[in-house]
Task: structure prediction
Amino acid sequence: NAGVTQTPKFQVLKTGQSMTLQCAQDMNHNSMYWYRQDPGMGLRLIYYSASEGTTDKGEVPNGYNVSRLNKREFSLRLESAAPSQTSVYFCASSGGGAGGQPQHFGDGTRLSIL
Amino acid sequence: AQSVTQPDIHITVSEGASLELRCNYSYGATPYLFWYVQSPGQGLQLLLKYFSGDTLVQGIKGFEAEFKRSQSSFNLRKPSVHWSDAAEYFCAVGPRDFNKFYFGSGTKLNVKP
Result:
């Protein structure tokens, strides 16, 4: 039972390089999310997808793009990486809709931008 | 605007002692409330959740939390802390019409032997 799988687990980039973080869930969840976690700031929502085919901006979307490829997969792309995007990135999924279903998280991608 | 405040950044308790982690939220209506735990290098794991009904909710690993509407609080408690409880704890709130969550900044728990 894999749950939410994120790849890669670690990555080092140079400023200006591009990269796509991958996320897949096997729980047949409708909603998927991308967060970044920085020390002392908790988790901040970058983008979310309420259902297949839809995406919306969260609290800190600048510098990122997302694609909901299908119901299982939700990718996050950095087109031109900047040192301020050094962070730990978490993907999460939930059943979505009304009902307060909790989120299930991947183990994170640790991204350093030099 | 929605917000979640965890006023304690770090807490240290002795093993076997009781624990209370504070969480206050600002929200227009009664939200769904959650506590998550994060061990080093791991993702977040759900400890417990409050939707409605009994204001004292039980979770995994012996944790419980109490919802107090008048204080806009949802504090996490454990009667006797174990060394394995050392981790970072996050409070989160979400609206009742969609699962868009807001997280507090976290409380790191250290456990002294």
